[in-house]
From TrEMBL:
<feature type="domain" description="SIS">
    <location>
        <begin position="201"/>
        <end position="348"/>
    </location>
</feature>
<dbReference type="GO" id="GO:0016853">
    <property type="term" value="F:isomerase activity"/>
</dbReference>
<keyword id="KW-0413">Isomerase</keyword>
<protein>
    <submittedName>
        <fullName>Tagatose-6-phosphate ketose/aldose isomerase</fullName>
    </submittedName>
</protein>
<dbReference type="GO" id="GO:1901135">
    <property type="term" value="P:carbohydrate derivative metabolic process"/>
</dbReference>
<dbReference type="InterPro" id="IPR001347">
    <property type="entry name" value="SIS_dom"/>
</dbReference>
<feature type="domain" description="SIS">
    <location>
        <begin position="36"/>
        <end position="197"/>
    </location>
</feature>
<dbReference type="GO" id="GO:0009401">
    <property type="term" value="P:phosphoenolpyruvate-dependent sugar phosphotransferase system"/>
</dbReference>
<dbReference type="InterPro" id="IPR035466">
    <property type="entry name" value="GlmS/AgaS_SIS"/>
</dbReference>
<dbReference type="GO" id="GO:0005886">
    <property type="term" value="C:plasma membrane"/>
</dbReference>
<dbReference type="InterPro" id="IPR046348">
    <property type="entry name" value="SIS_dom_sf"/>
</dbReference>
<dbReference type="GO" id="GO:0097367">
    <property type="term" value="F:carbohydrate derivative binding"/>
</dbReference>
<dbReference type="InterPro" id="IPR050303">
    <property type="entry name" value="GatZ_KbaZ_carbometab"/>
</dbReference>
<keyword id="KW-0677">Repeat</keyword>
<dbReference type="Pfam" id="PF01380">
    <property type="entry name" value="SIS"/>
</dbReference>
Length: 371
């Protein structure tokens, strides 16, 4: 195999693993209802979505939509924040449902965040969504009375460096677990349409030869923009600087990142209100960068004369679910940038400067007095 075969295959397999993910969650429905049902029926329960890196961005994608569907605040708090300041998770002594996203289930912060919550709040409940049946989280919580473990299909445990199918499958699984069924068939059709234009997306990137990539979105698509930027940073080993930001926040400082060589991509919301802000910024960027350096990622150009990565959206598909298909152009763009620069996408850091599972983290005892 070449040094990009795993990454490319894991991008391309997403429509099929989503179908398998739905079947897994359906099979776990009784346990989900028994363990998590009481927490979800209690309006006082604090629902926290957590993970590190890409897994944290999965929570950021889902939080706005789950807030609407569950009719309560749903927070996305990275494990890296929980571990360094765990008492913020238990403030007010409210019931807590911690939803942990973890590809390997072996990251020190993932294990520590769950353990700290159990220590500080013994009545807490857990939903753990992981891609690795042999990970530490599975071993610790597979038989715990206060937890449900959803182990995704083995194919989602990406062997490439960057999380691709693991990210989208975790988003889908959490939505199915917490908010009920979605049209996975429609989502798979949208992804298949994107993958059919892989060459066109890659040609856009190689022709523009960007020195920087900027991804923008609003609501759930803000978290998606951050994940898209991370894919570029990871697969190019940082050679192509990338930023992900919300549509409105971009003007408040991050816009300084723009250069004449920037390629700016906007995830266009399916919600008319949010979309109005997305398109306002698109027009502004077309004026400053030129139409050939601005990409709309969505089901339409909305009358704008600019580049377009088409991602179909069937009526009623919310941004947080559509995001699983919408991230695929960004995954393909990152892969194209990586290959164009001579990197090996399956292992962009052969010297080990950045690792697939984070290393070097020391989990310090909490509660001990320190001078």
């Amino acid at each position: 195999m070449t040094d990009s075969d795993f990454t490319r295959a894991e991008i391309e397999q997403q429509p099929s693993v989503w179908q398998a993910t739905r079947r897994l969650v359906t099979a776990a429905r009784t346990r989900l209802d028994d363990v998590l049902g009481p927490a979800l029926r209690d309006p006082a329960t604090r629902v926290v979505l957590t993970g590190a890196g890409t897994s944290a961005y999965a929570g950021q994608v889902l939080a706005p939509e789950l807030t609407r569907l569950l009719d309560r605040p749903v927070e996305a708090v990275p494990t890296t924040d929980i571990v360094t300041d765990p008492q913020t998770l238990t403030a007010g002594n409210r019931p807590v449902l911690l939803v942990s996203f973890a590809r390997s289930g072996n990251s020190p912060e993932s294990v520590a965040a769950a353990a700290l919550l159990d220590r500080l709040h013994p009545a807490a409940r857990h939903l753990l969504i992981t891609c690795n049946a042999d990970g530490d989280l599975v071993r610790r919580y597979a038989h715990a009375a206060n937890a449900v473990v959803i182990t995704l299909p083995p194919a989602t445990n990406d062997r490439g460096f960057a999380m691709t199918s693991s990210f989208t499958s975790m988003i889908l699984a959490a939505h199915l677990c917490l908010a009920g069924d979605v049209d996975v068939d429609a989502l798979a059709r949208a992804a298949a349409a994107v993958l059919a234009d892989t060459t066109g997306i890659e040609k856009t990137v190689t022709a523009s030869r960007p020195d920087r990539l900027v991804y923008l979105g609003s609501g759930s698509l803000t978290g998606l923009a951050r994940e898209a930027a991370l894919k570029c940073l990871e697969l190019t080993a940082g050679d192509v600087a990338a930023w992900g930001e919300s549509t409105l926040a971009f003007r408040h400082g991050p816009k300084a990142a723009l250069t004449p060589g920037t390629l700016a991509a906007i995830f266009v919301s399916g919600d008319a209100y949010r979309r109005a802000y997305d398109l306002d910024l698109a027009r502004e960027l077309i004026g400053s960068l030129g139409a050939d350096r601005v990409v709309l990622i969505g089901d339409s150009t909305h009358g704008l004369d600019t580049l377009h990565w088409h991602v179909p959206r069937e009526p009623g598909l919310p941004d947080a679910v559509w995001a699983a298909a919408a991230i695929i152009p960004a995954q393909l763009a990152a892969l194209a940038c990586s290959l164009a620069l001579g990197h090996t996408p399956d292992n962009p850091f052969p010297g080990g400067e950045v690792n697939r599972v984070v290393r070097g983290v020391v989990i310090h005892p909490f509660g001990e007095r320190r001078d």
